[in-house]
Amino acid sequence: MADTKISALPASTVPLAGTEVLPIVQSSTTKQVSVANLTAGRSFNALGMTLTSTDAGAAAAPLLELYRDSATPAASDTLGEIEFNGEDSAGNKQAYGLIHASILSPTSTAEQGQLHFETATAGALTEKMIIGTTNLVVNEIGAVFNVRIEGDADANLFFTDATNDRIGVGTISPAQKLDVVGNVQSSGNVIFSTSGKGIQGTTTNNNADAGVVGEYVSSTVLTGSAVTINYGGSGVPVTSISLTAGDWDVTGWVGYNVGAASVVTYLIQGISTTNPGLTGETSNVFGGTASTTPQIPIPIQRVSIASTTTINLSSATGGSGTALTAYGTIRARRIR
């Protein structure tokens, strides 16, 4: 029944008879058209309806328009709904999904609207998402409705745990308000707005990974393996560590085995990046001939390096007689 004006359609009877009759209203008069006589461009069948456009232009086509022609439009007016219904296991008609639009503001030239998406939960439609003018809101009603976003290789790239009000990145079982499985990078500062809050430390006796703030590196030479320190030298490494690029706090201590025939006029020990040599050293004067084993601490020294560097625990001494031997520990903690 192609190319027939609405006014030329046969008038309908009341009520409309049959199940394959499409009522059309024009100027308060109801017309009817047999569904079986619709052209291919407006076809119905047992599987659904197809709207076909053969227009070759750039304009949108075909067009399905839901137009609420109200003389008094107002905020919160529902403009139209698309319902998705089926049957439940008891044979009852059940709404499983719904999309509807509503007016936020009907003010001319400043109109605003939004789309609402609902799905069935426990037999009733509940709103899951709203697309508004300036935002997208998920779970506006505060239901137990989780959101999961998949990545290319991570099935739980982003997950909201509505039951516990938590967010997981790389996990569907977040243990804290924000739980991230993987590295976190920030180009800004981490700011704690509440007094007394900070970065929680480890709760076990493990070590920080290499390259991580808190990384600990140390080396110790025991007294039985003490290094000979000749008098008058510029400095001898007692032991050393290798530190990778970063900002470190380095400290240590040096112990001496002084023989009965030794006459010591001074002891110098410190942290050094040269060999031999001492930088940032501490000077401790020690004199006498009695056999003794002094142990001298070295204050914390900042070591900021751009590449992997050997850091020495060095010692120098002055005096005469039997040479001294030195032992001790150097330790470093990454602070940046």
Short description:
By secondary structure, this protein is an all-beta fold. Helix content is 0%, strand content 46%.
List the helices and strands and how they pair.
Blueprint: E1 21-26, E2 29-34, E3 42-45, E4 48-51, E5 78-87, E6 93-105, E7 112-121, E8 124-131, E9 136-138, E10 147-149, E11 158-161, E12 166-169, E13 178-180, E14 216-221, E15 227-229, E16 236-243, E17 246-257, E18 263-272, E19 282-284, E20 295-305, E21 309-320, E22 324-334
Parallel strand pairs: 12-13
Antiparallel strand pairs: 1-2, 3-4, 5-6, 6-7, 7-8, 8-9, 10-11, 11-12, 14-22, 15-22, 16-21, 17-20, 17-22, 18-19, 18-21
Characterization of the model:
The protein is an all-beta fold and 336 residues long. Among the domains are: 42 residues, no CATH class; 34 residues, no CATH class; 119 residues, Sandwich (Jelly Rolls), CATH 2.60.120.660. It contains no helices and 22 strands. A five-stranded antiparallel sheet has the order 5-6-7-8-9, with no helix packed on it. Strands 14, 15, 17, 20 and 22 form a five-stranded antiparallel sheet that branches. It is rod-shaped and about 130 Å long.
